[in-house]
Amino acid sequence: MWQIFVLWGMSQLVTGRCQCESGNSEVYAEEGSQATLPCVCRPTSLTAAVIHWTRGQKGTLWRKSRNGLEYRGAGGRRVRVPHSQVGVGEYSMYIHGVRTEDGGKYTCMVQDGEKHIFNKVTLRVIKVSVSPPEPVEHSKIKLACSVHPWPAGATVSWEHNEKTVNPKSSAYAFSTARVGVLEGKASESMMGNWSCVISSHGMKQGNAATALTVRGIVNPSSDSVKVYAEVGSAVTLPCVFSNGLTPSHPVWERLDAGGSILPLPPSLNRSSLPSFPFLPPWDVSVQMGEVGQVDGGRYRCSATVEGYSLAREMQLVTAHVLINEPSTQKATVTLTCHLSDTSEVTDWDWVLVNANPNNTQSVSSIQKGRVLRINRVTDRNADQWVCRFHGKQGVLGNVTYHPSQMSGLRGETEPEASSKTVLVFSLGFLLVALLVLGQMYRNHRRRKMILQYPAMETIVHTTANEREERERSRVKEDKTFK
User: Fold this and answer.
1) Do 76 and 58 contact (CB within 8 A), yes or no?
2) How far is residue 418's CA from residue 425's CA, in Å, rounded to a whole number?
3) pTM
4) Distance of alpha carbon 5 from alpha carbon 7, whole angstroms
């Protein structure tokens, strides 16, 4: 019996009859992509077949005759049927750069001898459009999902960055105007890839996506951004708009916890930026020349763009090192890395950085933790200790401590040298005091001896008077001679 089936199969290969039937299918393709319209007939005939692709009333798109000649009709170079596939019974047609107007019904006809096989394909082109293409934050925006031709009974769902979106969610404030259309106000949270998914009879059929860009304040990207700065250093508070925008009436404000406006720090100045006044018009950042411990908190930048008022808040977090120095010279010094806000910090470490003779720096020690204990005597010659604080995305900032500054401010020296200096100073002072006392005693004794002999006192005074008289006479004679 099996010999009969083998002979039958071989006869089919020799006679070249297609073993496929006519059918209908649907293809969904995103605008701009490549669409594949299927037409497969297996097992293939060994005889030369005629393949003919047509579209409705528009005539021939592509045709191959028995002699192998190829003809291209409407569609031009965007339409092709690879020769390598035709030889194995694959007659599918590829359309490059699909356009909305390409949607419609297509027919593939395969003629093998007297047999004609017809395969009908409906091409539906999906497109997502944004109006206006690059909206300004707070302006009206419309997302539309179109399918040409529209499938009967189809449903449309939306995805934002691959997550299903509920149009009624307050996060987007969209309203559904009609099937496949969303309307609302543009916001920075809407930026990203938007996809519309077409489903029919509960099954996904196709999808299309587009990137949505909302113009406005791009840095900071949201109101939750924190800017970290070391106390005493300079810091830039960013406020950068999308390229090409010209914000008018920019205003900087400082806010308290309740949102009330506070006075700005005196060191906050836009003109102190390194590139001012050569900043582009869309950059209205400001710089704080020297950050103080009390300067941390909320700041807000606002301006008007194309009639819409845009604002962004940010938080300045100050950082400095708290030093706990005991009175004992040889005791350890406790250093604590202090931040005005630690909500984003996940890890701390201390890095010992030393300067090299070739103007480079090297790290010789890393210690984990927020608190560091160092020895005042052995660590005073270290170049600097750097406290780094980390978040989920990496290093948030750092603050530096110089051990040598501690020794200089306190006038700290070697304990032995300090003791010797005090001893020498004390001995010197005692010697001077003894000499003064000795001289005072000798003078006292001399006066006491003179008082015991009045005649001697008279002789002394008389001799002194005579000496003075002779001196005055000599001076007068010298003047007369001159």
Assistant:
1) no
2) 11
3) 0.66
4) 5
Name which of 206, 223, 73 is nearest 127 in CA terms.
Answer: 206
**Which class in CATH covers the domain with range 2-124?**
mainly beta
How are the residues of the chain apportioned to helix, strand and coil, as percentages rounded to the nearest 5? 20, 45, 35
Asked if 152 and 56 count as a contact pair (C-beta separation under 8 A), the reply is no
CA-nearest of 217, 292, 286 to 253 is 286
Q: Mind listing the pLDDT tens digit for each residue in 446-465?
A: 665 555 545 555 555 566 66
Q: Which CATH number fits domain 222-312: 2.60.40.1120, 2.60.40.10, 1.10.10.60, 3.40.630.30?
A: 2.60.40.10
Element (H, E) at 475: helix 454-481
Domain spans of the chain, in order of start: 2-124, 132-212, 222-312, 325-410, 423-467
* Residue that the structure tokens 């909305």 belong to: 100
User: Please, which residues have CB within 8 angstroms of residue 95's CB and are 6 or more apart in sequence?
Assistant: 29, 34, 35, 37, 75, 78, 79, 102, 123
**Structure-token pair, residue 358:** 């070739």
Q: Which CATH architecture has domain 132-212?
A: Sandwich (2.60)
Contact of 441 with 447, CB cutoff 8 Å: no
CB within 8 A of 332, min separation 6: which ones? 326, 373, 374, 375, 376
Which pair of tokens denotes residue 386?
């750097």
CATH class held by domain 325-410? mainly beta
pLDDT tens digit sequence for 32-85: 999 999 988 765 554 567 889 999 877 889 888 887 788 888 666 788 888 767
Residue entry with tokens 């309740």 = 258
